[in-house]
Every structure is written in C-alpha cells, then in structure tokens.
Amino acid sequence: MTIHYTLTFMLLAAEMVTFCVLVAPLPYTLKKRLFSFLSESKAVAKVAYGLKISFIFVGILFVDALQRMFRVTAEADMAKQTKGGVAHDIRADTSIAARKFYAQRNMYLTGFCLFLSLVLTRTFYIILDLIHTQEEYAKLKKATASTSRNNGAQSEDQAKEIASLKKQLEDAKSKVRDYDILKKQAAQNSKEYDRLATELNELTGNKSNKRVD
C-alpha cells in the first residue's frame, strides 16, 4: 500500500474512533464540556480546516481509484474475450486479478473515508443541536417554575385582597340592613306617634265639648 493510501487508512481509523467517542453514552455534563470544547476551541478549528483540505485530496484519490477500477475491469473483460479457447496465462490472470483487487480496495477505502467524514460531521452537529436544545429546555423549565411561583404568590395576594373586599362588602351590606331596619322602625314610630297624637287630640276635643255643654 502506497503512502497516500496508508494515510487514508489512518484517517479512516481516526474517524471510526472519533465516531465511537461521539456516540458513546457519556454523562450529560461530560458530553456538554466535550462538545463545547470541540465547537469553540481555535486549535480544533485549525485541525478541522486541515482535515477539510485532506478530504479534498481523498476525493481526488477516490476518483482516481474509481477510474483505475473501471480500466482494470475493462482490461480483464477484454483479456477474457481475446483469449477465447487459448490456454490461460496464470501470471497474466493473477496480475489482472491483483490489479483489480487493489483498485477495488483503494476505491472502497477512499469512498468509506469520505462517507464516514460526512456522517461524522452530521452526527457532531446533530448532537450539538441536541445539547443546545436541552440547555434551552432547562432554562425554560427554570423560568416556568419561577413564573409559576410568582404567579402563586400573586394569586395568594389576590385571594387575600378578594377575601378582604368580600368582608368589607358584607360589612357594608350589614350596615345597609341595619340602616333599613332603623328607617323602618323610625317610620313605624312616626306613624304610631301620629296615631297617638290624633287619638289624644280627639279625646281632648271631646272633653272640652262636654264641659261646654
């Protein structure tokens, strides 16, 4: 294996290890610190920039390996057609098979490296969004709890104020009832006084008339 394909294999192995670390069931606090470091660190950003450049070269190697595989496959098919009934050359067949194997190996190696890089990037941002969503949910939960406590305190104050107003209303109603009772009693007393005064006047008038007679 040449040096560039060896480096590609090492990059693929590093991607596999990184993917296992990202999807590992780590505690929330540790995962939050890890992803915060990966997303905010300048050193990690520089490494990511270098990896993007390396993936460009891996893409070029993938295209080259794909072309070689097609070319070797075409040569193998052409060799089978040209030989026909002639005895096969074992060395030539072995050479073609080896070239085909290496071409397929290089294509799969570079292809999986590119594919895993896309999966790794997408997984990283999905988990990062999930962590941010959990943080927002925790903040919203705290805000809702504090708001509910404040609303509970306000509700208690309002309940006390309503009870006080009800008590004042009952007192006012009782005073109105007492006033109505006193008013009725005063009216009755006034009527009774007028009746007694009328009777007294009538009796006094009758006595004076008898004396005159």
TrEMBL record:
<dbReference type="InterPro" id="IPR008417">
    <property type="entry name" value="BAP29/BAP31"/>
</dbReference>
<dbReference type="GO" id="GO:0005789">
    <property type="term" value="C:endoplasmic reticulum membrane"/>
</dbReference>
<dbReference type="Pfam" id="PF05529">
    <property type="entry name" value="Bap31"/>
</dbReference>
<keyword id="KW-1133">Transmembrane helix</keyword>
<keyword id="KW-0256">Endoplasmic reticulum</keyword>
<keyword id="KW-0472">Membrane</keyword>
<keyword id="KW-0653">Protein transport</keyword>
<keyword id="KW-0175">Coiled coil</keyword>
<comment type="function">
    <text>May play a role in anterograde transport of membrane proteins from the endoplasmic reticulum to the Golgi.</text>
</comment>
<feature type="coiled-coil region">
    <location>
        <begin position="155"/>
        <end position="206"/>
    </location>
</feature>
<keyword id="KW-0812">Transmembrane</keyword>
<dbReference type="Pfam" id="PF18035">
    <property type="entry name" value="Bap31_Bap29_C"/>
</dbReference>
<dbReference type="GO" id="GO:0006886">
    <property type="term" value="P:intracellular protein transport"/>
</dbReference>
<feature type="domain" description="Bap31/Bap29 cytoplasmic coiled-coil">
    <location>
        <begin position="160"/>
        <end position="208"/>
    </location>
</feature>
<feature type="domain" description="BAP29/BAP31 transmembrane">
    <location>
        <begin position="1"/>
        <end position="139"/>
    </location>
</feature>
<feature type="transmembrane region" description="Helical">
    <location>
        <begin position="7"/>
        <end position="28"/>
    </location>
</feature>
<feature type="transmembrane region" description="Helical">
    <location>
        <begin position="48"/>
        <end position="66"/>
    </location>
</feature>
<comment type="similarity">
    <text>Belongs to the BCAP29/BCAP31 family.</text>
</comment>
<dbReference type="GO" id="GO:0006888">
    <property type="term" value="P:endoplasmic reticulum to Golgi vesicle-mediated transport"/>
</dbReference>
<protein>
    <recommendedName>
        <fullName>Endoplasmic reticulum transmembrane protein</fullName>
    </recommendedName>
</protein>
<feature type="transmembrane region" description="Helical">
    <location>
        <begin position="108"/>
        <end position="128"/>
    </location>
</feature>
<keyword id="KW-0931">ER-Golgi transport</keyword>
<keyword id="KW-0813">Transport</keyword>
<dbReference type="InterPro" id="IPR040463">
    <property type="entry name" value="BAP29/BAP31_N"/>
</dbReference>
<dbReference type="GO" id="GO:0070973">
    <property type="term" value="P:protein localization to endoplasmic reticulum exit site"/>
</dbReference>
<dbReference type="InterPro" id="IPR041672">
    <property type="entry name" value="Bap31/Bap29_C"/>
</dbReference>
